[in-house]
Design a protein that fits this description.
alpha+beta, five-stranded antiparallel sheet, 386 residues
Length: 386
Amino acid sequence: MLDWLSHRLQALSLQAKLTLFATALVLFAVSITGIVAWRLIDHLAESVARARLEQATQFVQGEYQNLLENARITAEVLSTRPPLQRSLVAEDATTLGMLVQTALRTRSGDFVAVVDADGDAIVALERGGVPQSGIPLRSDEAIARALAGLLAQGLEVLPGESVRAVVALPVRSGEDVVGAVLVASFLDNVLAERLKLATSFDVTFYAGDRATATTLRLPDGTRQVGMQAPPDVSMAVMTEGLTVERVVRGPRGRLLVRYSPLRGVDGQLLGMFSISAPVAVLFETRTNVLAVFGPVVAATLAIALGAAAVVARALSRPVRALSMSVQRIGEGDLSTPVPVAGEDEVGRLARAVEEMRRRLLKHAEEQEQLNRLKDQYLFNVAHELK
């Protein structure tokens, strides 16, 4: 194979050899540059993608903390208002209902409940609903902690595997706890859609390792339900409280997903949320850069190859002219001068060949003169002898 290639190369002209060499050199340089640029662009795209996910995660965490903070402020305002304290002691559901409706108008929560010392709701109101009373809430962890005189703040998992951010505060009459106020915001699909609109990423809330609300969609456009986090992710997030990043395959392709923990009212890990986006979307920075880099490289390669062809032709032209001159000299043409151009090696060689041609021409002229003298001498001798 190498012998065949060597033979084929030897059969090519100098211009073709120079062009091939320059082309190979340009392609090698462009390939090396392209590989390095690809790695750098890929690293940059990955860094940008990770940074965007981190920003989105921080935004969702900040919104979750804002929900808790707004709920805490509302609960503090309600629990310290004398009208509520008096109405709670008197179990005046009408007055309590008015106070709770006023609190919900501030949009500081989705659900407000005022319970007595036994944990029964004197009034419980969900946004858009009607006040209810007599609902037993003593089994609620946040209510139980508030009735024990403690602040309860964090995540709650409700029956039916829904989750909410909740704050519960005790209501005191003097030193005695006479009841509690609970303010909660649901981590539902409505909130997830609002967070997606703000971050441009899909948001999913989990109770344990099972999704309770998400913005992820199936190919037909319906909301994806029944999702479950990978076991190793659940272990790392729910047991160790770590933030974990994974590439998973979804119905619409590969997703880069970032999981973060959420703690319950007792400080224990109860759930988590995830920020996810298609890998292709996250790496759109690389696509955009390559969209500019590719044509630039192609144009540079075309210009370099064109320049290589021109240079190869310019380099081979004097060599070709010298070769033709040497061929003419070999065929006996000593009258045509050898063209001399430049001071490089080819120019010096052409000058030396031209000097050789002149010497050969002078020698040929002298030889021709000697031949004429010889012929004249032989003619004279023959004439005298005759």
